[in-house]
Amino acid sequence: MTQGAVPKDSEEDALHIAIAAAQGVDYLLTWNFKHINNAEMKSEITKVVESCGFVCPQICSPEELGGTSND
């Protein structure tokens, strides 16, 4: 938050990202397109997470993650 990757009033969003990175998850699924899952924020979030020595999870919505369908 102090580095500006997440707005100062979005502590829960920052915590969500930090926990996912610290736990080494592959994907962070979110519907939060305002503070987490948008092109500008993802780039900044990745920079901050990696500067702290963690691998940033792939941030995406459940729809973006996709998967296979039996249709």
Describe it.
It is built from 3 helices and 2 strands, in the order αβαβα. The chain has helices spanning 11-22, 39-51, 62-65; strands spanning 27-29, 58-60. It is globular and about 40 Å long. The termini are far apart. The longest helix is centred in the middle third of the chain and has 13 residues, at 39-51.
How does the major sheet shape up?
2 strands, parallel
Structural class: mainly alpha
CA(first)-CA(last) distance: 42 Å
Helix content estimate: 40-55%
Give the low-confidence spans. Answer: none
Order of helices and strands: HEHEH
Q: Enumerate the strands of the largest sheet in spatial order, edge to edge or round the barrel.
A: 1-2
Number of helices: 3
Number of strands: 2
Report the portion of residues in β strands.
5-15%
Q: What Rg, in angstroms, do the CA atoms define?
A: 13 Å
Describe the global form: globular
Average pLDDT: 88
Secondary-structure topology with pairs:
Blueprint: H1 11-22, E1 27-29, H2 39-51, E2 58-60, H3 62-65
Parallel strand pairs: 1-2
Quickly list its features.
mainly alpha, 2 strands, 8% strand, two-stranded parallel ribbon, single chain, 71 residues, 3 helices
Task: Explain briefly what this protein structure is.
The protein has helices spanning 11-22, 39-51, 62-65; strands spanning 27-29, 58-60.
